[in-house]
């Protein structure tokens, strides 16, 4: 049976899933046979952890996995080795890669060849902390699965229909023309949520919806009739909401001050804004919302206050972009699970038409026993509906690749 492999290559991890390819055209994708990740790439304690429908949950320590391209090759080798041992009859025939940046032109998933790969290389400066890892994952997979069809799916693609005013900065026009634009990210997640709305809440799908993808990386997206018209993220995945370790929206004057008065180098500034800021920087404790919720340190409380306030502010801003609001959807690790954070965001939003249901909120999440993973957390008569919906970026990767595979 041929297999479809999805790969989501980050700086220190590769998430993957393995799904049997359906034979006949139009047959829906079955559930994955296995999914998991190699974590700790570039560190001392690399691990392969996975869950397989045939073999249950497995964890395995790996010999030191280097960073960079060779690290991704070693990580893929570990997955390959597991496949050979546990599913010796199966062959990977289709590989779908998550790629952060598709630039101005890639608005659809693409079949990967040398020409597309060269174009993606040229986009690496636009996403220096993500794109090189994605490309290392692609090159490793091309070497490992030479016969397979390889597909790239872009986080920016879902936002390429933004109107000019949501796509630009007020810089001299030449910068827009050369690609300095507000791209927006988390597109595979938003696409999955838009599809879920279409399938299960078709009336809301037709309306004005804000999706809050709140995870270690966090952003919001404004959907009108399922189409993205605005996003909190901009040129890079730094803008908008504060995140685990990223600053979110910041006055560019602060950056000029750090460069000119404090002597920061571009590398130090990059490290500060991507790795040392956000919840971690403000709290001085952790980027993890669970730890901050448990902490009694005032700085932990202030970091969460800031996160909640910026989420509320972004909901106001995107409602203005949409000309009103019919539904708000929470997704991502925090959005799906952090009951107190949802409560704090929602309890002050009566003015926007949200009649919040604290009891329903308390019973929704995927990380506590007996909770509902998805459903409504606003009162039945609320003018704006509020939903919790788990996202599934791997599923979108798989479906996009299958569509290209079947079109060949
Ligand atoms: P990523 O952007 O890396 O994909 P996730 O969407 O997995 O991140 O979200 C990770 C974050 O979700 C964690 O850092 C943690 O703060 C938060 N989270 C996960 N489960 C819970 C929970 N039960 N309560 C509060 N926060 C949670």
Automatic annotation (TrEMBL):
Cofactor note: Mg(2+). Can also accept Mn(2+).
Annotated binding of Mg(2+), by residue: 8, 393
Superkingdom classification of source: Bacteria
Entry annotation: catalytic residues: 155 (proton donor/acceptor)
One annotated GO molecular function: ATP binding
GO annotation terms (biological process): acetate metabolic process; acetyl-CoA biosynthetic process
Pfam family, one: Acetate_kinase
Function field: Catalyzes the formation of acetyl phosphate from acetate and ATP. Can also catalyze the reverse reaction.
PANTHER family: ACETATE KINASE
NCBIfam families: ackA
Assembly with partners or alone: Homodimer.
Protein name: Acetate kinase
Source organism of this protein record: Serpentinimonas raichei
């Amino acid at each position: 049976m041929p297999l479809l492999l999805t790969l989501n290559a980050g700086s220190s991890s590769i998430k993957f899933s393995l799904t049997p390819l359906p034979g006949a055209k139009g047959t829906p994708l079955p559930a994955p046979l296995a999914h998991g990740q190699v974590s700790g790439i570039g560190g001392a304690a690399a691990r392969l952890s996975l869950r397989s429908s045939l073999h249950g949950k497995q964890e395995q320590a790996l010999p030191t996995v280097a960073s960079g391209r060779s690290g991704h090759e070693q990580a893929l080798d570990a997955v390959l080795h597991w496949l050979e041992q546990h599913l010796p009859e199966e062959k990977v025939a289709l590989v779908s890669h998550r790629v952060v940046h598709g630039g101005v032109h890639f608005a659809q998933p693409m079949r990967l060849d040398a020409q597309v790969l060269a174009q993606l290389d040229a986009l690496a400066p636009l996403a220096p902390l993500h794109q090189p890892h994605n490309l290392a994952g692609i090159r490793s997979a091309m070497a490992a699965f030479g016969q397979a069809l390889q597909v790239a799916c872009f986080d920016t693609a879902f936002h390429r229909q933004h109107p000019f005013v949501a796509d630009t900065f007020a810089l001299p026009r030449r910068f827009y023309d050369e690609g300095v634009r507000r791209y927006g990210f988390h597109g595979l997640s938003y696409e999955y949520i838009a599809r879920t709305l279409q399938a299960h809440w078709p009336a809301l799908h037709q309306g004005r919806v804000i999706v809050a993808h709140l995870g270690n990386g966090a952003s919001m997206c404004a959907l009108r009739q399922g189409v993205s018209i605005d996003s909190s993220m901009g040129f890079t995945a730094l803008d908008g909401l504060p995140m685990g370790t990223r600053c979110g929206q910041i006055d560019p004057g602060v950056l000029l001050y750090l460069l000119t008065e404090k002597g920061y180098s571009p590398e130090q500034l990059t490290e500060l804004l991507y790795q040392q800021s956000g919840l971690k920087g403000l709290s001085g404790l952790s980027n993890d919302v669970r730890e901050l919720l448990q902490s009694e340190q005032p700085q932990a409380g202030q970091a969460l206050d800031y996160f909640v306030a910026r989420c509320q502010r972004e909901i106001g801003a995107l409602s203005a972009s949409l000309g009103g609001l019919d539904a708000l959807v929470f997704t991502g690790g925090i959005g799906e699970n952090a009951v107190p954070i949802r409560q704090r965001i929602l309890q002050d939003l009566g003015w926007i038409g949200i009649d919040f249901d604290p009891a329903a909120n308390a019973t929704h999440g995927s990380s506590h026993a007996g909770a509902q993973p998805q459903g409504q957390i606003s009162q039945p008569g609320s003018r704006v509906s509020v939903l919790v919906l788990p996202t599934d970026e791997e599923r979108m990767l798989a479906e996009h690749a299958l569509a290209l595979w079947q079109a060949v």
